[in-house]
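pasting for the record
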Amino acid sequence: MELGLKGKAALVCGASSGLGKAVAMGLAREGARVAICARTEEKLTRAAEQIRRETGAEVVATTADVSVPAEVKKLLQKTIAELGKLDILVTNAGGPPFGYFLDLPEESWQQALEMNLLSTLHLCREAVPHMKAAGGGRIINITSFAAKQPQDGLILSNMARAGVLGLAKSLANELAPHNILVNTVCPGAIETERHFALAERRAAKEGVPVEKILETRAKEIPLQRAGKPEEFADLVVFLASERASYITGTAIQIDGGVVRSLL
């Protein structure tokens, strides 16, 4: 299937590793020109080099903390300057820490909102004017299946990521006349650094081997396994493509069947 992504300009956030890196790689393989960002320069540089090496695509790497509005503004300015336009925005940021309600310090709540909700808001505010001027675009937000089915110990993520769903649905309705499509993807257990880090924390809390936590979690998934980052990226790449031209306002979980609700 021809996805119509050749020559498109995409910005993928949180792309030094994990889901963001897999998405950037997937878009680059389809011929998109890709700008990537992350907070850690060394990891970001390595990711950019790998994407260039494996795909031959143009890759622009910018160190930025998307929870800081001023850095978001500079990131978008550099992306437009380097790529000439912005067709696709993939919002993504690291997940907030594991913790329970009464155990979390006051600042954790504000930090979670800044990282996982307000970062999406700031990125969209900077990107949308460029997309409107160009006659359209794609915004894909990466959240978590916890936005639909809250998880014990992830109350910060449950709160902030659910807010992204409300923002995205509102934007989808408001921006549809401008041919800007807004969708959200809600990953479940995907084999990333965060996936294994959360398993290690749960193992330490429960006093069991990390392998036991991973096995137990796999048994809770109808497909009986965690997903691969590339499987996740395939969905995002499709939503960014011309083949997804009538899809907007959706929140699609990619979780092996974990979320049991009808909607």
